[in-house]
Amino acid sequence: MELNTEINFMSSHIESHIRGELLKNEPMKKHTSWRVGGPADVYFKPVDIDDVATFLSQQSGDDPIYWVGLGSNLLVRDAGIRGTVISTSGLLNGLEVLENNLVRAEAGVACPKVAKFSAKQGLIGAEFLAGIPGTIGGALAMNAGAFGGETWSKIVAVETLDRKGRRHQRTPEEYEISYRHVNGPVDEWFISGIFQFTEGDGTQSLADMKTLLDKRNASQPTNHPSCGSVFRNPQDDYAARLIEMAGLKGFCLGGACVSEKHANFIVNNGNATAADIESLIEMVEKKVADQHGINLIREVHFLGDAHEH
């Protein structure tokens, strides 16, 4: 009964037949890998795709809507998000093999899970997904990559929901896709991707993944909250090398520090604010531009307001 009371209190047009959990003023630091961020006005955890569609069909046309998976590539500012956050993590979790070596993964499935699942089905080509610390929804939205592979190189179709809750099946040809960038129909969100893999030695694939991940874990900070890589690698170079050459490895602002282990990671030492992290990102950009003449491009997405209104 408590949930229905809150729903009715929040908005008269949101009806109680939504089955998921609807929260007001939900702290986003609970839902981002950096463990920072102010509250979202509305936070919705759907039960399944139909539940999201129902929810979307009841929203007014101009309210901002943001989708969040594991929050691993996201900086939510300290004053939080004006609008609605839809959470997919652990919820839109369908994962199945279709005919012709196709694998369908819903937006909330963690990328490494797709890699392991595919290998266990005797399919190869998904190994790179093991190195992406987010969900399929986020990987589709930014053409995430790791170990030399990219998400959209294996996609044959995607399924989306629009603002009215209608489903669409789309092909890669309907999107502009480049390095860490995807541009497609406005106000549509990915709810699943269909990947094309090939038959092969799944046991070897799993072994390869373990080798790659062991190597990565040895070189990346795993003991403090971070967002993964902060910046894209410039062509024929590495952001971490440029940051280290600028003398910033280990440099801190407030509770945010450039990792001693990998300079393209910014870690939360336990008491960082989103403002600390954003200021440090800006400082790194300026130093690298001043010393190397290279403008680093952010891989991390920023959401929300820096100051209370």
List keywords for this structure.
Uridine Diphospho-n-acetylenolpyruvylglucosamine Reductase, domain 2, Uridine Diphospho-n-acetylenolpyruvylglucosamine Reductase, domain 1, 4-stranded mixed sheet, 3 domains, 309 residues, Uridine Diphospho-n-acetylenolpyruvylglucosamine Reductase, domain 3, alpha+beta
User: What is the second-level CATH architecture of the largest domain?
Assistant: 2-Layer Sandwich
Distance between the termini: 33 Å
- Helix tally equals 7
Rounded radius of gyration (Å) = 20 Å
Instruction: Tell me the strand order in the biggest sheet.
Output: 6-7-15-11-12
Quick one: biggest sheet? 5 strands, antiparallel
Count of distinct structural domains: 3
Question: Which term fits the overall shape?
Answer: globular
- Helices and strands, in N-to-C order? HEEHEEEEEHEHEEEEEEEEHHEEEHE
Mean pLDDT over the full residue set: 90
Share of helix, binned? 25-40%
Number of DSSP-assigned strands: 20
- Broad CATH class of the largest domain: Alpha Beta
CATH topology of the largest domain: Uridine Diphospho-n-acetylenolpyruvylglucosamine Reductase, domain 3
Low-confidence stretches: 1-15
Strand content: 25-35%
Structural class, from secondary structure content? alpha+beta
